[in-house]
C-alpha cells in the first residue's frame, strides 16, 4: 500500500458531501421494549401492519417472516409470521436466521469507516493505492450480436474510493449475464473465486462496465471493499467483522455462515414456481451456501443475521455510532455514511433487491441509499433516511428525523415481491401520529 495515504488521512475530516441531511446524534443507548403509544404510534393503526404481513402469508406470497419496529430506542413491535419451513411445518420465530445478502453492504461501509478513522484511506484516494492489480483496467466498448465483447478501451483514470462505495466506479457484477461485461464476470467465475485475492485477480482480467464516474451501476464494488479491509487490517474479513462489529454490538447470530447448533433456526429460502404459482425451494449455487464457512466471504452479500441483530446495527446508526455505551465509530463517520455522494444527474437503479429506476429525491451514501428529498420522491420517510435490502427478501430503513427504524425479513428469491417493502413503510408512517417536531 502507498504509505503516504496514511499521512494524508490526517486531513480526513475535509470531505466533500452532496445533498441530504446527515444522520444526527441522539442520546446513546441500547434497545428495550416499549408501548407504541408511548413513542408516538397509534396502536390500532399499527395493527394494519400485522394484517398486511398475515395476508401476505395467507396469499402464499411468502412462507413466513419477521418484522421489527423501534422508535426512540424502544421496540414497539416484534412479530413472527407464518412458517420457517413449510415442509417441516416449523413455525417462524422471532429469532429465525435469514440470508440478508445485500444488507451486508451497509455493515461493510461501517467496517470501512473504522479503517477511515485510522487514517488508512480517504474518499478521493485512487483504488489502485490499495489494489495495484487494478492499475491497467480495461473498459467494455463494443460487442457482437451474440453479446461477445469485441473491443475494449483503457480506463481513463483509476476509480476513487468514493466511487467504489457509491457504485459509480464502473465495475460490473456478474450476478447474471444481462450485459456483456456482466456475462464476462459470470463466465470468469468472479463470484465463485477461491479467495478474495483470487476474486480481485479475476476482476482485473475482465473489462469494466463503463469508465469511472460516468453513472450509477450496481456492481461488485462492495466485495472489492472486503478485500481492501483484509489488506488494510491484516485480518480475515470474517474475523474483522466479528471482533470489531458483531461482538461489540452484541450481534450474536450474525456471520458468514450458520453454525451447526443454529441451523434449525435458519429460515428456508423459497422461490416462486410460476407453473403452479406456489413457493418452491430453489437450487443453491456453491457460492450461496450458508452452512459452511465461505472460501471468499462476500462483503457485498454474504451475511446471515436475525431481525434483533440487525436492529442493533440500526440503533447504532441512529445513535451516531454508539450502542450500550460502546462507541463503534465517531458521529462524523456516520454522517459521511448517511450523506448523499452522487452528482444530481445520477439515478439510483436498484435497492439491493431488484433493478428498477428510482424517482427523484433518492441519493446514495456509502453502500446504502439515502433520502435527499422525501417530498420530491413521494416518500413518507424523514429527510436523511438510509435504507437498503437483500435479494433473498430482507429490507430496512433508519430514519434519523423521526428517530425510528424498521427491519423486515422474509426468504424469497427476487426480494420482497410486489411492493411489500413500500407497503410496510407506508403502514408504519400512517401509524406515526407524533412525528418529529
TrEMBL record:
This is Serine hydrolase domain-containing protein. Residues 49-425 form the Beta-lactamase-related domain. Coiled coil: none annotated. PANTHER family: BETA-LACTAMASE FAMILY PROTEIN (AFU_ORTHOLOGUE AFUA_5G07500), BETA-LACTAMASE-RELATED. GO terms for molecular function: hydrolase activity. Residues 1-24 form the signal peptide. It is an enzyme of class 3 (hydrolase).
